[in-house]
Amino acid sequence: MRKSDGLVLIALGIICAIAVIVFHPKPQPAIPQEPSYALSQSTGNQSSFYPLEQDIDPNLYHSVGDWVGRLILPNPEEIQANSTSDWVWFQVYNAPTTAQELIGEKVRLEWQETPQIKTYLDAVTTAIEFNQTTRNSQKNGNIHPNRLNGWSQVGPLQSLAGARPKNDVIVRLEEVIWAENRLKIARSPIQVSGGFYGLVSIVSTQGEWLTVRHYNPESGRFDGVEEVIHFPQHLFSTPQQLEASPAGEAGWYIYGAKDKQGIFTVQAIAPRSLFQLQPDRVILQDKLPNLWEDTGDRQGTVATVLIDPEAKTQPDAISAWQEGDRALILHLFGGIGGENGDQQTIWATVTGHFSFGVAEIIRDPFTDELRWEIVYQQVYAHNPDGIIAANATWANYMGDLQRGWLGKRPVVDVLIKLEAVTQDYNFDGVIISPLQALQQQLNVMMSRYRTGDGTGSAIVTPATSCVQDSNQALYIAIEQIKEQVATTPQIQAWLQQHPNHPQTQRFQELVTLGEELEQNLTPLGVVRSDWKHNAETLAGVGDRFMQDNQLLAGILSWRTIMPRRGQDIIADLLLDKNAKLWVLQTFQVPGGDGSIFPVAPTVLLGNIPVLSTLLTRLVAGLTTLPSGWGWLICAVIALGYAAIAIPFGLMTGFLQFRWDFNGVQFFLTLVFPAFSEELVFRGLLLPSFLENASAGAWLFWLSLSTILFILYHPLNGRYFYPRGYPMFWDWRFLVLAGFLGIACAVSYGVTRSLWSAVILHWLAVNIWLFVFGGKGKLQLISSPVASDLHSEERVEG
User: Fold this and answer.
1) Which of 35, 203, 742, 777 has its CA 20 to 30 A from that of 189?
2) By the 8 A CB rule, do 765 and 670 touch?
């Protein structure tokens, strides 16, 4: 083995060691800690603080939903009396005008009886029995469904109502039927903060009391009714900071309810400017910019960016978004730096958190302008803040004064509109909705997280995390759509009868996109066993759900191990399909806290830029396998190289037909030099497809890597590999090496896989060694004939 090859092996060993240290699940010691959920239970967070009968001026405040109320977990006796279904109590806060008499009442909430809901309930209903991991996690301060421990049958409504120690989960219900003195729902509840919301500007502050002026729809300005409201002091902001924040220049949405003295008490806030369809910046290009640029310098600000790869002008890009449009959300939050920030990161990596969601353009009831309404599907591990894996409005998840991230973390939400994904399909009455299919699978995953698949604990490992399991839901949704299309003759017939219909073309785009998404979710071409099993379980084929927490499972879906990488990959892939992106950015709003600062999420070793980039390139190149077309392209490139190299070598006398095959050497050359040299000169030096490098940048790195590849050979022959001297100094050899470097680089760039370059390099080396006299030139003698020929060369020399 050459010394240079040994260095390559050492480098690979270091990279593997880092990966194991960072990603291998850590044991959880049982160190008693007080959960932050318990510490934040101020009076304003208690349901008893707000009277059920609210005297609200409908001109100033609107309900956050037709049906709003508090989930109450039934006691074991009530469950035992009726344990055949998933149900909870629902204390009605708001109700439609036709059911106002129910406000303040406690009614039974259950599911509508449909085949789809029955499949969902059968899949996720489980017994809960805490294990030692769960008990240790509780002692570490995490909130687990303690009230459900020991229950033999827990459904998704019960796991939501019992997620926290108290009955304090406030939700909005949709698709509701009131029948037989029961509320029956067809969709999962959505967490909300406060029962009502208004639109105000801040006039002045005094302690926890704000003087605000309401928006006046007649004038279109904040010159309406003036009111004093209560803004409870919380950890992330003060009323003074809120008043001075530039994020509130267009006004604030305030969410809450009136207390017993009739004072409106704020429970959540949202900056109006973030949701208006008035972007701060419009980018007309098909490349994804760095959405986290200058994060550390942007505390207290919000920004909106519109990216359109097709529009010619900025007004055209904005006008493409209309009322009723839906968008897929890619949510990602970053870290908290500073004295009161997050604990020290491991290996200079800020992981962040990823989730999906759905946004819709609605008409604002106060201003009559178009704005975004956002609902997240949060696949969220058990935590000390009491954040629940469930559907949540933006105000509840981001703007809530008790546990929202608006003032604590930087957040980038990418809202994506691509008709193939965000519009439904109607095949003569058979409806396929990609967004709804994804939401259904996310609801399954969120229910599983709340129960911990029966253990009461959802923990983060390299293979099971917010981003891995959100994308597992995406994978299963794609598989189910494929299965539905393949097994529904009505869909097949419609597609055959309407080959040129716009819906058919849009559906073909969806099929192609699904294939590319699956390639990204399973880059090695091997589907994780737990993902495959869980897809079969939901299709009624498999048994109970399974989770694989091992590092190997995470490697099979490595591109979605890091939340930052997950957001970038999906956004870039859809942008490449001409999707339109609306980006919402918040950076610790309202700001003003000098003890913290926003930190962008990173990929592995992201705070060491060069090392992070090199590691990402290696992992991307080595864990991507060429497709069938990729291997065909590789073969064409190989033939093209042969068409240049062989005539050149024969004409200059460098190549001479001389058969001398050796099986051991044939396989050894796969490792040295093919793999080792491609690892360095293509794997490390060329930008991977994940970097979105421009054509100019890629050509620069191709040129540099080729020059270094050529120069490496004479230096290697002089100092590390004596058999290569003086042959590695031969100008003819160096010309052929240059052509080979270019061919391998092009093969890598086209197929995105380092293995195509390795195979091409390997074949070229072996053909030279065993067919065109290379063994003799390198003094790798394995036969008397070759030995005599080599002796003659030395005499002639």
Assistant:
1) 35
2) no
Integer CA distances (angstroms), 108 to 26, 157, 185, 392, in order: 42, 11, 11, 22
> What CA–CA distance (Å, rounded) separates 793 from 771?
17
Question: What residues form DSSP beta bridges with 214?
Answer: 200
Among candidate residues 735, 612, 622, the one with its CA nearest the CA of residue 678: 622
pTM of the model: 0.84
Residue 535 DSSP label: H
Contact of 451 with 86, CB cutoff 8 Å:
no
Q: How far is it, in rounded angstroms, from Cα 399 to Cα 408?
A: 10
Burial 482-494 (b: 16+ CB within 10 A, else e): eeebeeeeebeeb
Distance of CA 202 to the CA centre of its chain: 36
Over residues 111-136, the pLDDT tens digits come to 999 999 999 999 999 999 999 999 99
Report d(CA 155, CA 162) in Å as an integer: 10
Q: Among 333-347, 404-418, 676-690, which is the least confidently predicted range?
A: 333-347
Q: pLDDT digits over 533-586, tens only? A: 676 666 654 556 666 666 566 666 666 778 898 899 899 999 999 999 999 999
Report the Cα 661 to chain-centroid distance in Å: 50
pLDDT, tens digit, 9 for 90 and up, residues 369-420: 999 999 999 999 999 999 999 999 999 999 999 999 999 999 999 999 999 9
First to last CA, the chain: 28
Measured between alpha carbons, how far is residue 757 from residues 552, 618, 727 in Å?
25, 13, 24
